[in-house]
């Protein structure tokens, strides 16, 4: 994929999407459609990974899916792709949606713009994880190696994934 131009989400904008348990989009707000360069008909009932950028390591999505399938929320930084090959960075908050019996019936994501210094750090980390994934003999081994590298980095920092993400979010608030 050719390297496209970066699109920057305005600080006050919130991207919202809702999916079923398989990740198929059931709702996308106007901000989502506008920045991703899609029409509503292009995304409804399509997998959410329609906006996945190839620079994103699979490990990050494994961590995300493991967390939300277990009934927990996750905050993470994601580089998304647009229909025309551009890209944009977000701080995503993904949560499961429950029915009245406590069963997961879908997922809800709100995404906002991260501040600029965070992006450079995420690009470096994600590049390292992607390189680790691609250095393995197959996709499964790559995913295992990528997750091991992420966990190693978190352990070295003495942080959980949540603490890691929130450390950047705290820096964003201080910079505002």
Tell me what the structure shows:
By secondary structure, the protein is of the alpha+beta class. The protein has a single domain (15-175), classed as 2-Layer Sandwich (Beta-Lactamase), CATH 3.30.450.20. Helices cover 43% and strands 22% of the residues. The chain contains 6 helices and 5 strands; from the N terminus they run ββαααβββααα. It has a 5-stranded antiparallel β-sheet. Helix 3 crosses helix 5 and helix 4 packs across helix 5 (139-157). The longest helix is centred in the C-terminal third of the chain and has 19 residues, at 116-134. It is globular and about 40 Å long. The N and C termini lie far apart (34 Å). The mean pLDDT is 93.
**In the residues, how many domains can be counted?**
1
Can you count the helices?
6
User: Which CATH C-level class is it?
Assistant: Alpha Beta
Instruction: Report the principal-axis shape.
Output: globular
Helix content: 40-55%
**Total beta strands:** 5
Q: Find the CATH superfamily.
A: PAS domain
Low-confidence stretches: none
Strand order of the largest sheet: 2-1-5-4-3
Instruction: Name the average pLDDT.
Output: 93
Strand content: 15-25%
N-C termini distance? 34 Å
Main pleated sheet: 5 strands, antiparallel
InterPro entries: PAS, PAS-like_dom_sf, PAS_fold_3
Protein name: Transcriptional regulator
Domain PAS fold-3: 26-108
């Amino acid at each position: 994929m050719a390297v496209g131009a970066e699109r920057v989400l305005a600080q006050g904008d919130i991207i919202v999407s809702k999916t079923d348990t398989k990740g198929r989009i059931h709702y996308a707000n106007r901000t989502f459609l506008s920045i991703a360069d899609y029409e509503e008909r292009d995304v409804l009932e399509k997998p959410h990974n329609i906006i996945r950028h190839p620079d994103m390591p699979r490990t990050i999505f494994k961590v995300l899916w493991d967390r939300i399938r277990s009934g927990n929320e996750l905050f993470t930084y994601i580089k998304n792709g647009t229909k025309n090959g551009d890209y944009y960075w977000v701080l995503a908050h993904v949560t499961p949606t429950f029915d009245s019996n406590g069963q997961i019936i879908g997922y809800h994501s709100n995404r906002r713009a991260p501040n600029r210094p965070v992006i450079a750090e995420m690009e470096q980390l994600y590049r390292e994880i992607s390189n680790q994934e691609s250095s393995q003999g197959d996709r499964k081994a790559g995913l295992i190696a990528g997750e091991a590298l992420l966990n190693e980095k978190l352990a070295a920092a003495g942080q959980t994934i949540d603490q890691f993400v929130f450390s950047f979010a705290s820096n964003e608030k201080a910079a505002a």
